[in-house]
Amino acid sequence: MILNSTSVYVRMGLSSSADAASVDSMTLFVLLLCACIIFGHLLQKSKWMTESVVALIIGLVTGIIILVSTGGKSSRVLVFNEELFFIYLLPPIIFNAGFQVKKKQFFRNFLAIVLYGVIGSLISFLIVSLGSLQLFKKLDIDLMALGDYFALGAVFSATDSVCTLQVLNQDETPHLYSLVFGEGVVNDATSVVLFNAIQKFDLSHITPTNIFQFIGNFLYLFLTSTFLGVAVGLFSAYLIKKLYFGRHSTDREIALMILMAYFSYMLAELLDLSGILTVFFCGIVMSHYTWHNVTENSRITSRHAFATLSLISEIFIFLYVGMDALDIEKWRFASNSPWTLFGTSAIMLSLVLLGRAAFVFPLSFIANLFRKSRNDKIAFKQQVVIWWAGLMRGAVSIALAYNKFTTSGHTQLQGNAIMITSTIIVVLLTNVVGGLLTKPLIRLMLDPHKHVGSSMTYDFVSEKTLPLLSNGEDSESNIDTGNPIDSSKVVHHYWRMFDDTFMRPVFGGRGFVPLIPASTTEDTQH
Amino acid sequence: MILNSTSVYVRMGLSSSADAASVDSMTLFVLLLCACIIFGHLLQKSKWMTESVVALIIGLVTGIIILVSTGGKSSRVLVFNEELFFIYLLPPIIFNAGFQVKKKQFFRNFLAIVLYGVIGSLISFLIVSLGSLQLFKKLDIDLMALGDYFALGAVFSATDSVCTLQVLNQDETPHLYSLVFGEGVVNDATSVVLFNAIQKFDLSHITPTNIFQFIGNFLYLFLTSTFLGVAVGLFSAYLIKKLYFGRHSTDREIALMILMAYFSYMLAELLDLSGILTVFFCGIVMSHYTWHNVTENSRITSRHAFATLSLISEIFIFLYVGMDALDIEKWRFASNSPWTLFGTSAIMLSLVLLGRAAFVFPLSFIANLFRKSRNDKIAFKQQVVIWWAGLMRGAVSIALAYNKFTTSGHTQLQGNAIMITSTIIVVLLTNVVGGLLTKPLIRLMLDPHKHVGSSMTYDFVSEKTLPLLSNGEDSESNIDTGNPIDSSKVVHHYWRMFDDTFMRPVFGGRGFVPLIPASTTEDTQH
């Protein structure tokens, strides 16, 4: 299929017409990334700031400086590029999330995650779409076609899983992290499907056939994307086990892992599946099998190299969003009607708050019905945190909004410009307010004694993934963080049996003892 | 300076007009990269193949398949993009080379390296330029202006340090590796300066002033580039020592190292210096100071992560060159005159062979005059290996040729098309022949007992960098690989004193004992 394409044509890198300027901006960008890491570290001691907020602020400040230094002439400081985001920045973040996720927690909460991520996103989508349709009409700022309101619903139902990773800590609040982050990943897929469905479907007459078609479409997308990720992950495990096992080819092992993970994402995108879901499950499978088939040095390197790539991508995105917020062009169009802009932003923000409340509390109630142990139920205070932590909208929303309301980053229509600027305002507000208040909120709502100081726990946490390296244990062994319910225990038991009997002999994985004489070389190093 | 630029404008990623096609080619490319690593590994057991040759061949085969499958319609399979090469692919390779280079060997051979890299490149440049001028006239294929011949000389005097890394092994032949690779780095800088000087200078009347100007220009470039690299490297060491020392923030440490190294390269390019020299010295300083200030996990991760990035970039380049070789457009122009093409290619190849012989043997003689110990002199057999191993022309030559003879990858002039195709032929020939014959040549010319089997030594070698991690020793401790001459011993002694007294207290480095209570956490892991 790939080779049949008549236009296999790679155009990467900076456009040659803007050579010198590109080197300028690249240098500036790299410098700003360094600054974000340094200031993020320095400000981390205060329990309020997250690195993403630091990056947003640095981006905004830089944007202002550039605007002032160019005398406001440079109408385009930085063009938000969807492809840069979806092809280069998002994959490492989601892959790393899958690679580092606590698998047991994730699968134990699977029902709740799917409830939030699919049904919840749909509820949120409907509330935002229909709410904005009604309110915009009432306020006489009815600027758009019917389809645009539904697109708006999809844009604002995309929770930003990247932000979630920043405010919730997997080791401090594993249960919440797994719920909110898991929801974010499933929700990303839902939003993209919704968004594409809306672009294609005739919305003027919604029929039951349409709805079934949509549900079928979603199930197909969810299952095939997951299957593809699992398949590529398993293939990588098998390949590395056969080719390199015990050969100490650390660089090649890591290179293969990175390339295969990226391949899974690109292949999914090529087949119009959800690359996000695919690469997430590829990460899970790789950490369950492939990671155990490589040398100890590869294990340490892969853990940290993937986390580093993800960190750089995250900071890059927030810096990008911060700088892009100041794009003069769209503000110029929107500034003719400041009250309209204010109105739309306020409406969207309220609808996002409302839309999320409308599904978190009812769906948590439903999820709790399936949980027998009292300890395991999602308490009301936890529900509040889930509601709050998932409010942040980020780069996915911006990317979708640009896709819908601009033509390759530019717009001349006032209605579209207002939608873009409202999106940016909501993203900035939810990120800054959310970023600043989530940590205090968690301390307030949940047990305060567990969270002494975030900077201390941070230092502890970042190396915590590593004790499991030497004795071959897996993240799965953290069973004591909550009492699993019986049914999940049974499922896990059967999975274990299946894994041990059929999967591990083929794909390696934990406990697969390296049978290599060269392993003595490693032992003498320590 | 950066902020004053009126057009700070980032355009990265794939052009939006070619979205689907780009995803196609990206997916294909990632798949091919995987294939190169896998086949490279499988073929490594044969002592003839190097990974670069495998990548070249896979690239060629893929190009043929695409051509056939599109029925020869797709005239542009892949556009060679200078920026992709110089901004994204080259920096990690050169940085990694500096980071992993055996510093003692490099500095001990510094005189010979500068002789080869500067004087040698100039000799080679003059021979290729004047030789092609004479021979092309005799063969009646005089297609170009005077300046083009000199540009050709610069193009073909650019030794490919990437290829050198592939055929020579730092641990098998450290002395030769350091000479040929060191020459490659200095030579890269010389070629780029030469190339730029030729574009600017009036070549019709070369005056002594011009020549002095050129020498001054080169010295300025060499010294400022080196200084910039050292400065950024030292700053990174200081920063990480102050900020993170003992904090177990592995991901942030690695991210900062990567970003600062990249920053040094971009800044050098922005200031019209040699980014290659800068990032090489930045790598050396980072491995001498910064690397010792980070946690043990960061050390393992950085060694392997940088090597992995470099590996992927290298394979990418060769795959790229292999695929680009089949670009129909230029072959169409060149195929009207197959004999001319054959003639030019043969002439260029002979001149490259001759130009290299003309400086390796005389300059080795001069370098030997300064070496007292008989063991330390460059033997004739070694000179032959140096001559042969540096013959390969690679992506730098192609990038310079494209820069000179095309307008953003396209050309309509027959003379230019012939120059591009000749360059590609020379690059392919030197790489395939060089890649296949260098290892046997080394076995033939040098002590055969030392090199039992390359695949065995390879496995041993790839982990060999790591025993020095645990006990804090440095690559510098391999003193027994050759008898250092007295003067270098004295220089090294004073450098050591200076380093211990002034540098290490500020910038950290080897032996700077971590004073952290948290270090016990690390100990328990092993």
TrEMBL record, chains A, B:
<dbReference type="GO" id="GO:0015386">
    <property type="term" value="F:potassium:proton antiporter activity"/>
</dbReference>
<feature type="transmembrane region" description="Helical">
    <location>
        <begin position="274"/>
        <end position="291"/>
    </location>
</feature>
<dbReference type="InterPro" id="IPR004709">
    <property type="entry name" value="NaH_exchanger"/>
</dbReference>
<feature type="transmembrane region" description="Helical">
    <location>
        <begin position="303"/>
        <end position="321"/>
    </location>
</feature>
<feature type="transmembrane region" description="Helical">
    <location>
        <begin position="341"/>
        <end position="363"/>
    </location>
</feature>
<feature type="domain" description="Cation/H+ exchanger transmembrane">
    <location>
        <begin position="33"/>
        <end position="442"/>
    </location>
</feature>
<feature type="transmembrane region" description="Helical">
    <location>
        <begin position="20"/>
        <end position="40"/>
    </location>
</feature>
<dbReference type="GO" id="GO:0005886">
    <property type="term" value="C:plasma membrane"/>
</dbReference>
<dbReference type="GO" id="GO:0098719">
    <property type="term" value="P:sodium ion import across plasma membrane"/>
</dbReference>
<keyword id="KW-0630">Potassium</keyword>
<feature type="transmembrane region" description="Helical">
    <location>
        <begin position="384"/>
        <end position="405"/>
    </location>
</feature>
<keyword id="KW-0812">Transmembrane</keyword>
<protein>
    <recommendedName>
        <fullName>Sodium/hydrogen exchanger</fullName>
    </recommendedName>
</protein>
<keyword id="KW-1133">Transmembrane helix</keyword>
<feature type="transmembrane region" description="Helical">
    <location>
        <begin position="84"/>
        <end position="101"/>
    </location>
</feature>
<feature type="transmembrane region" description="Helical">
    <location>
        <begin position="218"/>
        <end position="240"/>
    </location>
</feature>
<feature type="transmembrane region" description="Helical">
    <location>
        <begin position="52"/>
        <end position="72"/>
    </location>
</feature>
<keyword id="KW-0915">Sodium</keyword>
<keyword id="KW-0739">Sodium transport</keyword>
<dbReference type="GO" id="GO:0051453">
    <property type="term" value="P:regulation of intracellular pH"/>
</dbReference>
<dbReference type="InterPro" id="IPR006153">
    <property type="entry name" value="Cation/H_exchanger_TM"/>
</dbReference>
<keyword id="KW-0633">Potassium transport</keyword>
<dbReference type="GO" id="GO:0015385">
    <property type="term" value="F:sodium:proton antiporter activity"/>
</dbReference>
<keyword id="KW-0472">Membrane</keyword>
<comment type="similarity">
    <text>Belongs to the monovalent cation:proton antiporter 1 (CPA1) transporter (TC 2.A.36) family.</text>
</comment>
<feature type="transmembrane region" description="Helical">
    <location>
        <begin position="417"/>
        <end position="437"/>
    </location>
</feature>
<keyword id="KW-0406">Ion transport</keyword>
<dbReference type="Pfam" id="PF00999">
    <property type="entry name" value="Na_H_Exchanger"/>
</dbReference>
<dbReference type="InterPro" id="IPR018422">
    <property type="entry name" value="Cation/H_exchanger_CPA1"/>
</dbReference>
<keyword id="KW-0813">Transport</keyword>
<keyword id="KW-0050">Antiport</keyword>
<feature type="transmembrane region" description="Helical">
    <location>
        <begin position="113"/>
        <end position="136"/>
    </location>
</feature>
